[in-house]
Specification:
The chain is α+β, with helices and mostly antiparallel strands. The chain has two domains: 251 residues, FAD/NAD(P)-binding domain; 149 residues, no CATH class. Helices cover 34% and strands 25% of the residues. It is built from 14 helices and 22 strands. The protein has a seven-stranded antiparallel sheet. A hairpin with a 2-residue loop joins strand 8 and strand 9. Helix 1 packs parallel to helix 14 and helix 12 packs across helix 13. The longest helix has 18 residues. The structure holds flavin-adenine dinucleotide. The site of flavin-adenine dinucleotide has 37 residues, from helix 1, helix 2 and helix 14.
């Protein structure tokens, strides 16, 4: 019976422990915190959007870095299989808008409890307040783990599930990067993803509190369009946030904002021609009323006043005195308003970490290291990250599942 040490009791580690024990291994799960799954508790605003019930292609389209690495893992544990397991373990789920799955109780803690029950039944030994400090290796093979206390534990396999570096209060402080780097693994520098963006621009900050629905945000870097989506965004006291912005930030991760352009289409339902015609109609209808009337017909009041300034339009002059260039500028900026951003909030505030252990050094079917046999990695510690919608947790569960299963019953030849 192989003995397996799992480092980290988050989504990846919990699933790796279950899969390894189900496949006959003697499993010990080491968690540095006083309890398991601290990050799971805060996911989905406490409701835990645990997976997304879309097909594998759509799933991979939502993965920003290294989607192809996930082919095998998504096949081994598709979203339906995860939900079936949770149901079996006493945590029924419901599927909401956008295929997002949540525990039916709407309580993230129920997901962690389901795993705790399962691990208890499988006889997994859980050691809390137990921080791994180094992984021991001899002759290219893992031999065990040294703890922060100096104690050493021997094992046939070690699965690193220590997460990224975002929300460090949950225990994810990047330990896994150092553990893996010490064994020769390359770590792609961690960067914040799914994170609000900062702006020093006075007009952006002045709009704080304003939320926009049904707008299209586009990110282009080096002339290439990386992201464009219809949805919601929000102006804040430091810059911009909201679902569209968080997603765009994932594509911005690792790039210099100065080389990228973020633009907002405030009227995505109208073509430039249709908008031009609408403005002309509005001008005709407004006559000698203030130009402000037209802007306020197009946008919420605060945005209308800002747009007037950005377009260089005197809001108090009669609408029918608007010059052609002013109308053209209004149409141009309405369809593509540049949002000047200069960076992101700190990585500690990121929903997910981009970067991490280079996936080229791991076998995608088993999650085993190509450098050290018996060494595995799963979850956010790997250089794989996705958009919101349950994808990141599912990646952790699915890669944890493959790693646990393979470590317990390594395919012949390894
Ligand atoms: C606020 C917030 C909301 C989110 N909401 C969602 C959501 O609804 N849906 C979704 O799909 N994703 C969501 N995510 C992302 C998702 O939570 C993570 O991608 C996922 O939890 C990663 O799981 P993991 O097991 O790889 O790492 P983690 O959950 O970070 O777990 C790593 C564990 O390892 C432990 N550890 C670290 N170092 C050591 C060590 N040296 N020794 C022992 N133990 C160690 C840590 O204490 C921790 O428990 C959210 C993230 C945040 C921050």
């Amino acid at each position: 019976m192989p003995s397996i040490l799992i480092l980290g009791g988050g989504a990846a580690g919990l699933m790796a422990a279950a899969a390894a024990a189900e496949n006959g291994a003697r499993v010990t799960l080491l968690e540095r915190n006083e309890k398991l799954g601290k990050k799971i508790y805060i996911t989905g605003k406490g409701r835990c959007n645990c997976t997304n019930l879309c097909g594998p292609e759509e799933f991979r389209r939502n993965v920003v870095r290294n989607p192809r690495f996930l082919y095998s893992a998504l096949e081994a544990l598709p979203p339906e299989a995860l939900l079936a397991r949770l149901l079996d373990w006493g945590c029924p789920t419901v599927v909401e808008r956008g295929n997002r799955a949540f525990p039916a109780s709407q309580k993230a803690s129920d997901v962690t409890r389901a795993f705790e029950r399962r691990l208890g039944r499988l006889g997994v030994a859980v050691r809390l307040n137990c921080r791994a400090a180094a992984i021991a290796e001899a002759g290219g093979r893992v031999t065990g783990v040294r703890l922060e206390t100096g104690e050493t534990l021997s094992a046939d396999a070690v699965i690193v599930c220590t997460g990224g570096v975002s929300y460090p209060a949950t225990g994810s402080t990047g330990d896994g990067y150092a553990l893996l780097a010490a064994l020769g693994h390359t770590i792609v520098p961690p960067k914040p993803a799914l994170i609000p963006l900062t702006s020093r621009e006075e007009w952006v900050r002045a709009l704080q509190g304003l939320s926009l629905k049904n707008v299209t945000l586009t990110l282009a870097c080096g002339g290439k369009r990386l992201y464009t989506e219809l949805g919601e965004m929000l102006f804040t006291h430091f810059g911009i946030s909201g679902p569209l912005v968080l997603s765009a930030s994932s594509y911005l991760a690792g790039r210099n904002p100065a080389d990228c352009a973020l633009t907002l289409d405030l009227k995505p339902g109208l073509t430039e021609k249709q908008l031009t015609e609408r403005v002309l109609r509005d001008v005709g209808a407004a006559g000698r009323k203030r130009a402000q009337t037209i802007l306020r017909g197009l946008f919420p009041e605060r945005l209308a006043d800002t747009m007037a300034r950005l377009c260089g339009i005197d809001p108090f002059k009669p609408a029918n005195e608007l010059r052609r260039e002013e109308r053209e500028t209004l149409v141009r900026l309405t369809k593509a308003l540049p949002l000047p951003v200069d960076g992101t909030e700190p990585i500690a505030a990121a929903v997910v970490t981009a970067g991490g252990a280079d996936v080229r050094q791991f076998n995608p079917a088993t999650l085993e290291s190509k450098l050290v046999s018996g060494l595995y990695a799963a979850g956010e510690v790997l250089d794989v990250d996705a958009l919101t919608g349950g994808f990141n947790l599912h990646i952790a569960f699915a890669t944890g599942y493959c790693a646990g299963r393979a470590a317990a019953a390594p395919p012949r030849g390894t």
